[in-house]
Write a structure and sequence with these properties.
Layout (H helix, E strand, L loop, with lengths): L3 H12 L4 H8 L3 H9 L17 H31 L1 H9 L16
């Protein structure tokens, strides 16, 4: 949401004859947003976003059980990638790029497209 000050400025400038397009350019807004803010009588108020639900007890226990294994695997993967990068960055980059298709999406696990 834009600030209440922005709403006030848009509202006042619109009353002084500024066009919606000029307001949008001046404030870096989409023209629809500028129109909405310039034509409403009060600053918009939005409801607070709903908070995400907490994890259920069984799911929380599962995450807590598997987290140490995942952390160890990620740490090992980081060390391998770091050592390969430091050994020869150009070859490492070519090797990684070999797993990408021309559009930048990953190819199959074997590295063949």
């Amino acid at each position: 949401m834009q600030s209440e000050e922005t709403w006030m400025e848009l509202h006042v400038l619109r009353r002084h004859g500024w066009s919606i397009a000029a307001l949008a350019r001046e404030f870096g807004l989409n023209w629809r947003t500028a129109r909405r803010y310039a034509t409403i009588d009060a600053a918009p108020r939005y409801r607070p976003r709903a908070r995400p639900a907490d994890l259920s007890r069984p799911l929380l226990e599962l995450v807590a059980e598997r987290l140490p294994y995942a952390a160890a695997s990620l740490a090992l993967l980081f060390l391998v990638v770091q050592s390969l990068w430091l050994a020869d960055p150009v070859s490492f980059g070519r090797h990684v790029m070999g797993y990408l298709q021309p559009d930048g999406t990953p190819s199959s696990i074997s590295g063949r497209t």
